[in-house]
Amino acid sequence: MWAIEFEQVSKSFGAHRVLADLDLQVHSGEKVTLIGPSGSGKTTVLRLAMTLEKPSSGDIRIFGESILFDTAGKPLLSAQEARIRRRCGMVFQQFNLFPHLTVMQNLILAPMTVLKNSREHAEKSAVEYLRMVGLDSKVHAYPAQLSGGQQQRIAIARALILKPEILLLDEITSALDPELAREVLDVVRNIAHESKVTLLIVTHEIRFAREISDRIAVFDAGRIIEQGPPDKIFSNPESERTREFLQSVLNH
User: Fold this and answer.
1) Where is 161: in which H helix or E strand?
2) What is the pTM assigned to this prediction?
């Protein structure tokens, strides 16, 4: 079954077209990485899937359900949209932790308000997910007391605690130096190898993408110019534009 389907999706901001008639399908449990130059539309794909943006045209489905229209073709009500959106979690470039809340408070807020979990249940889950990202000793710390890498690992735990079936990762190491980035990538590597969650990733970490992805989709100017298994894309790309892009990032 497809976890995510983009059907003829276009997105424009004013006169600027960011995506052009995008068709993209991701299987349940598949790990797909979107690569390509900045401004090619990759992040917009994630924001559309998370309903943070609306497409200008086309349809997007999560596990077969449109996130835009009901079965009669009418726009979804906010409650219907929220129900479908809960199947997705997203981690952003910036950590977006609440600075006035402790790590524990940051993690239990959504389970208690969105899932209506008891505080006891939410705190027990929080400790489990903090242990998964190697930070169960930081439950009482505030974000300002943590490194950037630790904050991003907390952000990943905060997304996972809602048990999403799809996890969207948007350049989650771009604000980190290489050593801290490795800590975060190790966490994602474990998620990719040990869980059934569907991953849709935007990253410039090309070697990491090659290691964990089932499929790579190469974007340029709002379109997928080619896609396939990592070994095929990185070792024998069909598109000259793909070769140019890979050469530029690998030699950087």
Assistant:
1) none
2) 0.94
Bridge-based pairing of strands 57-62 and 2-13 is antiparallel
For 33-90, the DSSP string reads EEE-STTSSHHHHHHHHTTSS--SEEEEEETTEESSB-TTSPBPPHHHHHHHHTTEEE
Instruction: List pLDDT tens digits, range 153-170.
Output: 999 999 999 999 999 999
Contact status, residue 57 vs residue 8, Cβ threshold 8 Å: yes
Neighbouring C-beta atoms of residue 160, cutoff 10 Å: 22
Closest by Cα among 38, 33, 89, 40 to 205:
33
**Torsion angle, CA of 162/6/46/235, rounded to 10 degrees?**
110
Per the CB < 8 A criterion, the answer to whether 191 and 163 are in contact is no
